[in-house]
């Protein structure tokens, strides 16, 4: 009976829904434990919120990071994973001077810290991490169906059968993961993390190109503005090409939420005006684009690390389960993998990779 507690058993072929930092990390960690992994990704390629937009050639080309702006590497496992699979050419430090505005309106500089970025864009990291992985892109998983062999069959939104797996790991933001579980008749699992759903915040992002250098003596800032939360000189990041100076502006979460259905033109104008008020720059950009994130960042600073429903062999992970941010996405994957090893679900040490490292 599938609802009775079972002894942990080996997982041989596992599906991961989502190929952002969390899904990619989980896939690489699990592969090194001898598990066959297939990832399903609804977008054209891996990366998720490690996202960049290519800029039109007629506007000087290049790309701009519209999701995560930079990331930290404090966790030794994260460092090892990046070094092994991404390598030094795909990410480096961004020695940016970043400032913030105090409640009294004064500007102060953040302490110097090691901030990392992908080179020449954030997606360089996800591309590098995904090189050895089996990713089925442009496949949006709709639901899971239990088979007679105690496996899960995955169905996509085109009603296509995507195969059977011993276990499934879900890495999408909580609202999207919840939708899949409910469609699969697993609403009780979704209840375990329903408090995380309202913690995900929206973010309007605008990319603006200024034809000439603005001459500011900082590369990014966090103002007290009611509209603008963050602005960064994308052109100051290492290895960026493209002509002119590209700035990335992020709207404040509550403002982005209130203006979810705003037009791109109105959103762009509001963010550019706020940028101008903070910097004193009156020059207008000659090209802009806007992107709306419905689920950008979680307000949760802590989390359980992972959810593992042993009777169903379903895992739920993501940045939002481990305090948010890129490094949190890795740590959530690491947390679940360690748990699966500790309860004996993984036949650790049987893979070619693990044998080679012995
Ligand atoms: C505007 C913005 C700014 C940010 N700034 C920073 C920052 O400066 N520093 C930092 O550390 N973090 C930052 N973050 C957060 C950081 O981007 C995330 O913490 C991290 O990238 C999350 O990785 P993840 O793999 O958990 O989730 P995601 O990257 O969201 O990956 C989930 C994946 O699942 C896919 N998916 C969803 N549903 C389905 C489905 N049904 N079928 C198939 N695939 C599906 C999605 O397409 C996506 O690729 C920022 C995020 C945003 C949006």
Which percent bin holds the helix content? 25-40%
Q: How many helix segments?
A: 9
* CATH uppermost class: Alpha Beta
Level-2 CATH architecture: 3-Layer(bba) Sandwich
Structural class per helix/strand content? Answer: alpha/beta
**Main sheet attributes: strand count, strand direction, barrel closure:** 7 strands, mixed
Radius of gyration: 21 Å
Q: List each distinct ligand once.
A: flavin-adenine dinucleotide
- CATH fold description: FAD/NAD(P)-binding domain
Q: Can you walk me through this structure?
A:
There is one protein chain. This protein is of the alpha/beta class and 358 residues long. It has one domain (13-357): FAD/NAD(P)-binding domain, CATH 3.50.50. It is 25% helix and 28% strand. It is built from nine helices and 20 strands. The protein has helices at 21-31, 76-86, 123-130, 174-183, 187-191, 253-258, 264-279, 325-342, 352-357, and strands at residues 13-17, 36-41, 52-54, 63-65, 91-93, 98-101, 107-109, 116-118, 134-137, 141-146, 152-156, 161-165, 167-170, 200-210, 220-222, 228-233, 245-251, 287-298, 307-309, 314-316. It has a seven-stranded mixed β-sheet with strand order 7-6-15-16-17-14-18. A six-stranded mixed β-sheet has the order 9-2-1-13-20-19, covered by helices on one side. A three-stranded antiparallel β-sheet has the order 10-11-12. A hairpin with a 5-residue loop joins strand 15 and strand 16 (228-233). The longest helix is centred in the C-terminal third of the chain and has 18 residues, at 325-342. Residues 1-8 and 348-358 have low confidence and may be disordered. Residues 17-23, 40-43, 48-50, 67-71, 140-141, 171-173, 176, 180, 203, 205, 250, 293, 296-297, 318-319, 324-326, 328-329 line the site of flavin-adenine dinucleotide (FAD).
């Amino acid at each position: 009976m599938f609802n009775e507690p079972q002894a942990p058993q080996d997982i041989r072929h596992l599906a991961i829904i989502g190929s952002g930092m969390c899904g990619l990390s989980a896939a690489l960690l699990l592969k090194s434990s001898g598990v066959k992994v297939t990832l399903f990704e609804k977008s054209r390629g891996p990366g998720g919120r490690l996202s960049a937009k290519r800029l039109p050639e007629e506007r000087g080309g290049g790309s701009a990071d519209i999701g995560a702006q930079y990331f930290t590497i404090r966790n030794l496992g994260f460092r090892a994973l990046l070094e092994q699979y991404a390598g030094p050419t795909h990410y480096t430090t961004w020695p940016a001077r970043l400032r913030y505005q105090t409640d009294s309106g004064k500007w102060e500089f953040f302490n110097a810290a090691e901030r990392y970025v992908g080179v020449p864009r954030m997606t360089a990291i996800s591309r590098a991490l995904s090189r050895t992985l089996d990713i089925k892109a442009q496949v949006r998983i709709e639901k899971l169906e239990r088979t007679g062999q105690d496996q899960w069959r995955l169905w996509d939104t085109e009603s296509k059968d995507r195969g059977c797996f011993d276990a499934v790991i879900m890495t999408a933001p909580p609202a999207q993961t919840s939708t899949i579980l409910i469609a699969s008749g697993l609403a009780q699992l979704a209840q375990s993390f329903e408090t995380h759903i309202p913690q995900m915040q929206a973010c309007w992002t605008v990319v603006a190109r200024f034809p000439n250098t603005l001459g500011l003596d900082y590369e990014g800032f966090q103002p007290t503005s009611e509209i603008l939360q963050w602005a960064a000189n994308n052109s100051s990041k290492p290895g960026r090409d493209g002509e002119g100076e590209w700035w990335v502006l992020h709207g404040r979460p509550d403002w982005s939420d209130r203006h979810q259905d705003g037009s791109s033109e109105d959103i762009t104008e509001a963010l550019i005006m706020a940028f101008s008020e903070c910097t004193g720059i009156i020059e207008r950009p000659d090209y802009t684009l806007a992107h709306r994130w419905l689920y950008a960042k979680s307000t949760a600073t802590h989390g359980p690390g992972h959810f593992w429903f042993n009777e169903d062999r379903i895992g739920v992970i993501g940045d939002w389960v481990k305090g948010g941010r890129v490094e949190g996405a890795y740590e959530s994957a690491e947390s679940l993998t360690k748990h699966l090893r500790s309860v004996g679900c993984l036949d650790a040490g049987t893979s070619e990779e693990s044998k080679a490292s012995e």
